[in-house]
Design a protein that fits this description.
alpha/beta, seven-stranded mixed β-sheet, 6 helices
């Protein structure tokens, strides 16, 4: 499994990291942490360079938080202690590069500049993500820079599963809603992992239109 974790510098991103670490413990997924810098910033200016490095430092903190769930001796993702270099891959893409650690699984940390929704979707295609995890506060509108509805746009346009984490609480049941009979293996695996992670019951709900429930959906 490949998980793309879209984070910003708001508190809900820390909740996202805790959830992704728990999923990664069960799946040993390849993980990419992605931050978005506004495309209005000119990185030739000292103020914007400072903002870029602030975002990089926040991402490094999320990486350390993630690795804290894996003891160094057993971690497939490397060690916490290594420092990073901020390296520009392309005009609008930066990588946080860490010393070689003989990682068995990828834990990449990247920054893209531009529109948050478009850049998250572009990264999901480039990394062939099976799952995008993104945070949001518990209010109707999120706090993503430049566009409060970034999570909604990701859900609508992504080619893979999307998990929007709004607040940290233990669910009592997971509802799986089906409106067609085509369900990918990655989606089934994700549902299974969430049921295992939260130790709750699963309820499968078939969504019917005015003609009733499709026979194919019913069989599925």
């Amino acid at each position: 499994m490949r998980i793309l974790v879209a984070v910003d510098q708001n508190p809900y991103s820390e909740r996202v990291i805790r959830l992704v670490a728990a999923l990664a413990k069960n799946t040993w997924a390849h993980v990419t942490l992605l931050g978005i810098a506004s495309d209005t910033q000119d990185f030739g200016e000292s103020q914007s360079v400072g903002a870029l490095h602030d975002l990089a430092a926040a991402l490094d903190g999320y990486r350390r938080q993630f690795l804290g769930f894996f003891p160094d001796a057993d971690s497939p993702y490397g060690r916490i202690g290594a420092g990073y270099r901020l390296v520009q891959e392309k005009k609008d893409i930066f990588n946080l590069e860490y010393p070689e650690q003989n990682e068995r699984k990828d834990l990449k940390v990247r920054i893209r500049t531009g529109n948050a929704g478009k850049e998250i979707l572009a990264e999901s295609v480039q990394t062939e993500a099976d799952l995008i995890v993104i945070g949001c506060d518990s209010k109707k509108r999120c706090q993503w820079p430049d566009d409060a509805d970034v999570p909604g746009k990701i859900v609508k346009n992504a080619n893979c599963s999307v998990f929007v984490v709004k607040e940290e609480k233990k669910p009592r049941m997971i509802d799986c809603c089906l409106d067609h009979d085509t369900v990918s293996q990655a989606s089934i695996e994700l549902i299974n992992q969430l049921v295992t992670l939260y130790q709750v019951e699963l309820e499968i709900i078939g969504l019917a239109d005015d003609k009733g429930l499709s026979a194919d959906v019913d069989r599925r």
